[in-house]
From TrEMBL, chain A:
Superkingdom, natural source: Bacteria
Protein name, as recorded: ATP-binding cassette domain-containing protein
Lineage: Bacteria, Bacillati, Actinomycetota, Actinomycetes, Micrococcales
Alphabetized UniProt keyword annotations: ATP-binding, Nucleotide-binding, Transport
One GO CC term, this protein: plasma membrane
Database matches in InterPro entries: AAA+_ATPase, ABC_AA/LPS_Transport, ABC_transporter-like_ATP-bd, BCA_ABC_TP_C, P-loop_NTPase
Keyword Nucleotide-binding: yes
GO molecular function: ATP binding; ATP hydrolysis activity
Coiled coil: none
Residue stretches making up the ABC transporter domain: 13-257
Organism for this UniProt entry: Candidatus Phosphoribacter hodrii
Automatic annotation (TrEMBL), chain B:
Keyword Nucleotide-binding: no
Source organism of this protein record: Candidatus Phosphoribacter hodrii
One GO molecular-function entry: branched-chain amino acid transmembrane transporter activity
CDD domains in UniProt: TM_PBP1_LivM_like
Keyword tags: Cell membrane, Membrane, Transmembrane, Transmembrane helix
Transmembrane segments: 6-25, 32-54, 60-81, 88-106, 118-143, 175-192, 204-221, 228-244, 250-271
InterPro entries associated with the record: ABC_transp_permease, LivM-like
Compartments, record wording: Cell membrane
Location of region: Disordered: 281-310
Source organism, top-level taxon: Bacteria
Listed name of the protein: Branched-chain amino acid ABC transporter permease
Length: 262, 310
């Protein structure tokens, strides 16, 4: 990235010299990243390379050993896990995590419940907490993830790919500034993956910054503007996705091994 | 009606007290907090109210209010101490709390009346007070099952990590469960000693924990409706079983065991499941979706790398 480009956009998330150690295991070590507004970033890397630990650190579920995380230029690593939603950081999980006994609508509403500055904020305290209304953000998230018709379904009645879309819808209902997606297309078929990729690019064009962890290299190349390749807890290559996947170091750490098994 | 009322006054009173006791266990259960501290709060309410009315002549409702506040504070302190524990460990810690309350009652000297307890707690609590307070408790708990608060309690129970990611302070909700449980249990206990005009350690011991738990297991912990159902059943069942003579405890035990094994969601669980099945059967699947087929496929594609190369 040129100096002119760097000043034109401002970082939404900045990670400086991050380390997360579990005893002697350096899950993440000397890792720095910069995420500018309105772009899709991807993280690739073999299992155990520290991708999930990194997401854990950013969502404040995993304590840092050292280093700094800045969100919007403000120190972020002291924020409690339950406060990241108030900063409009939304995430999806590696395994689908939906409430089993409530409808798709209510699962997505859970994200809208956390949104600030939403139309709900202007409702009275009573209606906001005990009312059974559905936020406008839910309808729009359902439309965007093409979940129309599923509103009254419970998670167990739907395919895995559809459940994944509910997770993404819940994150969108939060009206995020930064969206963290942990393997969003796992368990989806080719058509569904294409749809998700298209959706993420639409969201990017509306200015939403995204950080995507994926195994599907083709999906990453199709979707991301910028890719970080991780191995052994640190970034071994970064840049345009096409360049990163051709990097010999990356091929050896990740793709080579994967393609041998394929 | 009035004949029935006069003949069954004690059971009718016990029903409303039982509802509040059951709610004091149902509220934390629903939030995923396996706390039986409601029984200990019942003891606190029973003794504090009895002592206040007996020793100071305080009006009953004020005594109920003060003991409620005491139990909420104790509940909060207990929560701060044990809320981070999970599952069985939390259950054991709260059972210990209940037993500590009993031990304090037994060894409280003149204040608590020792093993024999306190007698002659005269009060002006009527059936209308019982109905009013039980209704207040039901309405309050029902509200926490609605809307945003209801969803958030569901999330805290089913997936605390997910709950945090959508901005819910899991710790605060768990602590609130302890406080609300303390209040409900305390009001139940207060009403018991004020209505019966007596309280002794045998009223608040281990059997009370078992009773409260039984009500919730058979009624269902997912909703206040389950708690009410359980409270009604286990207030009226023992007298009905009296006809079995010596066998009544066996029959009682079989009913509880059957419910625990075959109806894990309780009676309310059966009802809500049936209602859900009815609505599910009525609706049509959305266009382009073949749930049954894709469902089977989804199971074979778990989270790993299999089948996902580029």
């Amino acid at each position: 990235m040129s100096a002119a480009e760097a000043t034109a956009t401002r970082p939404v998330l900045e990670i400086r010299d991050l380390a997360v150690h579990f005893g002697g295991v350096k899950a993440v070590d000397r890792l720095s990243m910069r995420l500018d507004e309105g772009r899709i970033y991807g993280i690739i890397g073999p299992n155990g390379s520290g991708k999930s630990t990194l997401l854990g650190a950013v969502t404040r579920l995993t304590p840092l050993t050292s280093g700094e995380i800045l969100f919007d230029g403000e120190p972020f690593h002291t924020v409690h896990a339950s406060q990241i939603a108030a900063k409009r950081i939304a995430r999806t999980f590696q395994t689908v995590r939906l409430l089993p006994d409530v409808s798709v609508r209510d699962n997505i509403q859970l994200g809208a419940d956390a949104a600030r500055g939403d139309v709900d904020e202007r409702r009275g305290w009573w209606a906001r907490n005990f009312g059974t209304h559905t936020s406008p953000a839910v309808a729009s998230a359902i439309a965007r993830t093409r979940l129309g018709g599923f509103e009254d379904y419970r998670p167990a009645e739907m395919s895995y790919g559809t459940q994944r879309r509910v997770e993404i819808a819940r994150a969108l209902a939060l009206d995020p500034r930064l969206l963290l997606l942990d393997e969003p297309t796992a368990g989806m078929n080719q058509r569904e993956r294409g749809e998700i990729s298209t959706l993420l690019k639409e969201l990017r064009d509306e200015g939403l910054t995204q950080l995507l962890v994926e195994h599907d290299v083709q999906m990453m190349v199709d979707t991301c503007d910028y890719v970080f390749a991780m191995n052994l807890g640190t970034v071994i290559a970064q840049g345009r996705p096409e360049d990163v996947v051709r990097d010999p170091q990356v091929q050896e750490a990740y793709l080579g091994k994967k393609f041998r098994h394929a | 009606m009035s004949d029935f009322y006069a003949a069954n006054l004690v059971l009718i009173q016990s029903t409303f007290i039982g509802i509040l006791l059951a709610l004091s266990v149902q509220v934390p259960m629903r939030a995923g907090v396996f706390s039986f501290a409601g029984a200990g709060s019942y003891g606190i309410g029973a003794y504090v109210s009895a002592i206040l009315v007996l020793k100071t002549g305080m009006p009953s409702l004020l005594a109920i209010l003060i003991s409620g506040i005491v139990a909420m504070v104790v509940g909060l302190l207990l929560g701060l101490l044990v809320a981070h524990l999970g599952g069985l460990y939390l259950a054991m810690a709260t059972v210990s709390f209940d037993l500590i309350v009993s031990v304090l009652a037994i060894n409280g000297g003149d204040l608590t009346g020792g093993v024999t307890g306190l007698f002659g707690v005269l009060s002006d609590v009527t059936i209308f007070h019982l109905i009013g307070l039980a209704l207040l408790g039901i309405v309050g708990v029902a509200l926490t099952e609605r809307g945003r608060v209801g969803r958030r309690v569901d999330a805290v129970r089913d997936d605390p990590e997910l709950a945090q990611s959508v901005g819910i302070s899991v710790r605060r909700y768990r602590l609130a469960a302890f406080v609300v449980s303390g209040l409900l249990g305390s009001v139940a206990g207060s009403l018991n000693s004020l209505v019966r005009s007596t309280i002794s350690p045998s009223d608040i011991g281990f059997s009370l924990i078992v009773l409260a738990l039984t009500m919730i297991i058979v009624g269902g912990a997912q909703s206040w409706k389950g708690a009410v159902l359980g409270a009604v059943i286990f207030t009226w069942l023992p007298p009905l079983l009296a006809g079995f003579g010596q066998l009544q405890h066996v029959v009682y035990g079989v009913i509880v065991a059957t419910a625990a094994i075959f109806v894990p969601g309780g009676l309310y669980g059966i009802y809500s499941e049936a209602r859900y099945r009815r609505t599910r059967a009525k609706r049509k699947p959305p266009q382009g979706e073949a749930p049954a087929h894709e469902q089977a496929l989804a199971i074979s594609v778990p989270n790993g790398d299999a089948g996902r190369s580029a």
